[in-house]
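Narrative of activities, Objective 1.

The group set out to show that a structural description can be obtained from nothing but a protein's sequence at a throughput compatible with the screening campaign. Below is one input-output pair from the validation batch, recorded exactly as produced.
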Amino acid sequence: MVSTAAKARAYTGPAILSFGFRPFFLGGAIWAALAVALWLPLRSGTFTLPTSFEPLQWHIHELLYGYLPAIVAGFLLTAVPNWTGRLPVVGTPLLVMFATWLAGRIAIMISGILGTWLTAIIDLSFLILLTTVIAREIIAGGNLRNLKVLILVALLVLGNAIFHLEHALDLPIEYGTRTGIATAVLLITLIGGRVIPSFTRNWLVQNAPGRLPIPFGKFDAITVAVTAFTLLIWVLYPNSSTTAALCVLAGLMQFARLARWAGDRTFSQPIVLVLHIGYVFVPIGFALKAMETFIPGLVLPSGPIHAWTAGAIGLMTLAIMTRASLGHTGQAIKATPAIMFIYVFASLAALSRLVAAFDIERPLMLQFSALNWVLAFIGFAVVYGPCLLSPRKRSR
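Output recorded for this entry:
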């Protein structure tokens, strides 16, 4: 039987289309930087786009349903072949998927010209296509235990559809936003719960024998279930005391779960440590949401939102992107000084955005956060662009 790796090596087309992570990680990083670079001038009115979305709506959509799906696609199109043993999506089919994602970004930018419904159809096409491809691969490969990941991708489709419907009906963009954020947090909870203890264990066994991450067990399963239920109630009733109480419980359980993964033993290896730093923003988000409700006026509503988005999504995606890109292109999996700067910029972007949530959102703080976000993702594109565009290094 020919292995998945052997099938992948048989591909002879452009390197950028040889695996899903290549175009989507690179394109997603460039878009993440561009979307935030445009956000502040859009917000201040010094720059405009021919879009029907208000500046804040555009900002939310393009990071939640533009950037995030690109990274999810890059991860799943690379991971699913390993889960199923099936041939990766490469070449023309991969190009079609990437072009569909890019068409969505353009459609949102010129939605004022295209119209509401045509924009929605073009934008939703990518997530529908991704869901279809992942479903086909998981079912054909008989890897049904990963259907839960497929369900979460389908929830991104639902959240994006709700976002467009709220926009079309001129309603506040609330349920579409919260559905997307909740789905992202669940994806991080599920996938992070798989890769963080695994990567940490592998590194510790080789470099620092001793206490290892505790394997997935009943506590993890209960934590995932409590997190899912809490997020569902948050989507439906964001400001209730019941939601806040559940956030306290979910936050404590997520902190405890993270503590079981021995992250405190990885300070000498930033490419492992950053996974733990990214994940800690999940319980921080729950804690801030509880504080917002129980201590009125202390935390702005943007606090928990940006803990989960700028913090958890931003850092966790970069952590996965930097590590996976090195491993799948034949590079040494270690943090160079340039990669460490990427982590520092992303961390500063998240932390400074949270600081702003405890006070009036001062322009200088927002600009500092935006600048660091842009530097982090442009840094990824500059540092990783050459290896993503080049064939995998052959092992000697």
